[in-house]
Structure formats: C-alpha cells, structure tokens
Amino acid sequence: MNQKIESAAGFVAVITPEFIRNKEKKMKDFQDAVEANKPMYAIVEKGTKWAEFEQLPWRQVFFFTDFSTLQSIFIMIKGDLDSFKKVQEF
After folding, report:
1. Domain span at 68
2. What is the reported pLDDT for 66?
3. Is the pLDDT confidence value at 2 over 90?
4. Structural domain count, the chain
C-alpha cells in the first residue's frame, strides 16, 4: 500500500491526455485508494478519453478546460472532504 495514499484524507486524480498515456503506472494508485476506502475525486480535462477510469468509485467528478480553474475545483473538494470527515465522525 502506498503510504501517502493511506495517510491522505482523500484521493484526487487530475486526468489529462498525458495522465492517460501513463495509465498502467497510475492504476496501482487507484487500487490503493479503493482498498484504503478513500473518498476519490476525478478532475478531467474536457475532451480526454478516460473510459477505463470512469467506473471507479468517484465521490465527485469535475471537468475543466483551463488549468486556471483548478484552484476553485480544489476548494470545492476541500469543502466536500471536510463534510465527509464530519459525517465519518458520527
């Protein structure tokens, strides 16, 4: 198990065409996140063919066309993770 994934609050993948070209290497990280029961978030560059990853248990999926919008997406993910942690505490 990847120690960074195991200790993280959640798992975020920014899926771009470059990411897809390295998909074999990335799949182990996805498997580790699923095994660790981490909330998973996909941030997908519009136009990217990501069918092999769509079936993963994403908590939320975001699409972007401009990298400058990533900051606002990460803020939304942080808010969701904070809510997720509060629910887990009950």
Report:
1. 3-89
2. 94
3. no
4. 1
